[in-house]
Amino acid sequence: MTIYKFMVGAVLTLAMVIVLALGALVFSARDFQFGVQQISPQTGGLISFANLQNASAQIERIETETAAPRGELIDLNAQLAALDTQLSSLTQAADDARASIVGQIADIERNANLQPASSAAADTSAQALSQRVNSLAARSGLSPQDQQRLAQLRAQVQQLTEQEQAIDEHDGERSALVARQRLVNGQVAEANRRIFALEAAIVPNSDQFDRVSGEAEALRSMSPMGVSAFLAQGHPSLLSTSLVLLMGALGSLLYLFPAYLNRPLPVTMAEIVVRLVFGMCAALAFYVLANAAIAGFSLSSGVQQATTSSMLNPFTVSLVGIVAGVMSEDIAKWIQERGKGIFTQGGGQPPAAAPAAPADAPPGGGLVNNQAIS
Question: 23 and 243 in contact (C-beta within 8 Å)?
Fold first, then answer.
């Protein structure tokens, strides 16, 4: 290996490292924008990292300030749930006891041939039932069995009275807890309103804030010196175009490396420079034509398809650039033929047939011997 070939190899390696590094940074930034656009289409893939960081800091401060009310609200909700369970149990037990007492009093009144007043029968409180029991106990002529039942009813009414008092106490306790819950809930709701306003300033739907914030934090933490995070704030069309150019350069290097290793005719410094520029130009031209074809198809079919840069998948954009860089000569020839077809359509003279290549002319491509720039 000659010194010149060694220097050419070193230049190729350095160019590949630079293109890969720049391509990785631009691709990660563009992929972040594409992900944000998928999460929140209203943003178009663009968010301000400074505003996002500022909003996150304010949200964290608000949550810290309202940590005590939030904890108290959780405790109040738990206490109210437990109290409601106790009230339901006590109420059910009191209703069952009341129904049993009312039935027994009615039986004793029928045995005594006593018709109670409608207002007295309708009142089933412990106090009213106690009065009915005492009234029956004061009557004469009751059988010993009914008198024994009245003695038992006095104890049951007393127990019902205690149950009603317990229910009243629990009702008062619940009212106090509900009042406190409303107060604390108002404080938490106000804090949540401020948080939602801060989140809505970054993304229209506050439910998407956590996902976007997580994606941004991951990009910022993994970005070398914050370069990818800085690039991610650029316009998607600029990043897509830059990505196409870099992938075109990468495709040119993918062409040149096999040529450097396998081609008898040595690769020169001039060929490296020209091939890189040519690959970038071919990638950009093919990228523009591809988007123009999509837009033209959308118009001709009557179906409006979004072709904005924010909706372009970075993997597809990279594929276009790499293919165009590797096949830059074929792409340029294809564009030339299509252009001739367009401008000669409608009466123009057809293009002259290309002269036949010599039989011994070597085929093109980096993997075989060709007559590339030397």
Answer: yes
pLDDT of residue 192: 92
Q: How far is CA 339 from CA 270, 289, 327, 345, in A?
A: 29, 11, 18, 10
pLDDT tens readout for residues 212-270: 888 888 888 888 888 988 998 888 889 999 999 999 999 999 999 888 888 888 888 99
Q: Cα–Cα distances in Å, from 77 out to 44, 72, 178?
A: 41, 9, 9
Q: Is the pLDDT assigned to residue 183 strictly greater than 90? A: yes
* Spatial separation of the C-alpha atoms in residues 280 and 369, rounded to whole Å: 23
Concatenated DSSP letters for 190-212?
HHHHHHHHHHHTTSSSGGGHHHH
- Contact of 51 with 275, CB cutoff 8 Å: no
Give which of 183, 191, 162, 323 is closest to 248, Cα–Cα. Answer: 323
H-state helical runs in the chain: 3-39, 49-65, 67-111, 118-122, 126-138, 144-200, 209-222, 227-231, 236-262, 269-301, 314-326, 328-343
Cα R_g (the chain), whole angstroms: 43
In eight-state DSSP terms, residue 355 is P
pLDDT in tens, 261-298: 888 888 889 999 999 999 999 999 888 888 877 766 55
Residue 362 sits at φ, ψ, to 5 deg, of: -75, 145
pLDDT, position 373: 43
pTM of the model: 0.66
Helix axes 3-39, 209-222, angle to 10 degrees: 160
How many CA atoms lie within 13 Å of 356's alpha carbon, on the beta-carbon side? Answer: 3
Rounded to whole angstroms, how far apart are CA atoms 123 and 178? Answer: 30
Structure tokens at 195: 């948080």
Measured between alpha carbons, how far is 346 from 283 in angstroms, rounded to an integer? 30
Give the start-to-end residue ranges of the domains of the chain: 3-46+223-343, 65-200
Contacts of residue 72, Cβ cutoff 8 Å, sequence gap at least 6: 184
pLDDT band at 308 (very low <50, low <70, confident <90, very high): low
Q: Taking 80 as the threshold, does the pLDDT of residue 367 lie above it?
A: no
